[in-house]
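Q: Could you fold this chain for me?
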Amino acid sequence: MYIGFTSDMHNRFLSHNKLATKGHTIKYRPWVIAYTEEYGSKSEAMKREKQLKSANGRDFIRSEIRKSFGISND
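A: Sure. Below is the predicted structure, expressed as structure tokens.
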């Protein structure tokens, strides 16, 4: 699971899946987008990113991913 914000989703995704040559994200290729949110300002996006990186936020994301891929919580 990767949580982050960007103003250019296409290039961020390209970087994680093709361009990067080192770092955490290359170990888990290919990445797929399972959930997104949009915000009107960078500060709002950064605040939400911080929330999503908390334990409760990660639980929320896992739940959303399960819904997206039709996986039960059992």
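A (continued): Helices lie at 9-19, 42-52, 55-69.
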